[in-house]
Amino acid sequence: MSDRIMKEYIDYISNEKGLTSNTLEAYIRDIKQFEDYLYENNIQTIMDGNKTIIITYLMYLQKSGKATSTISRNLASIRCFYQYLLNNNFIKEDPTLNLKSPKCEKKLPNVLTKEEVDLLLSQPNLGDFKGSRDKAMLELLYATGVRVSEIISLNIEDVDLDVGYIHLKDNNGTERIIPVGTIALKSLFHYIKSYRNEEGLSYKDPIFINYSGNRLTRQGFWKIIKEYTKKSNIDKTITPHTLRHSFAVHLIENGADMKTVQEMLGHSDISTTQIYSFASNNKELREVYNKSHPRA
Fold first, then answer.
1. Keywords assigned by UniProt (predicted)?
2. Which strands, in side-by-side order, build the sheet including 159-160?
């Protein structure tokens, strides 16, 4: 391929495709790597590329250990280039026509076992403010599956200790009422009555605060999780979202229906929730395999 065609193509995708600088660089790099592959396979110019060689190249990338997302982007880069060549009469047919990108595998969430959850949640010391607060937060996180941003945004008015639920409202005005289990309620009750039952406390005041009396931050919450992960000696990377994942998977394992879990998690699309079913099914399949296969 001539330098002139490549330069004109780069001008085209820079000015007319509206690609970001990173994507632009990736597209150019992908084409040049494809060109190198063609040359190594005795195909002198990219103009002579065909569907078979493109499929072979994608298989080569897969065997080289490239991620599915990387392979998909390579195909997008190659398709964009051949469409440019076709539209400018450099070639008569688009060899990428009807070629489909490989489906990206859904990454299963990192989930704790019930025993690991018990171990993690048993770490805080209930004899002081910090331990009582941390215990209440961790129990509430696992009991409801809420996001970190939601739990630190809770005010006194958002929790009903008598009925046993929390009330959430997002920036779009969508509201969720989520039930809270007895263990989490007990921890919340102890924390609020022992350390937040101050004179003049308003219903608009935050539930979870730091030593300065200010609302706890996301960074502060992450440090708390990191601290108790280290104390528990659990050999997994645990983030606040790990407890949200564990909440969902454990509910499904115990028979909760997908729609209910979707509502509690606040997912707008149930397909987002279905990943937890995959994680649950994989665990069940592994357990059956381990019990049944003679060489498991």
1. Cell cycle, Cell division, Chromosome partition, Cytoplasm, DNA integration, DNA recombination, DNA-binding
2. 159-160, 165-169, 175-179
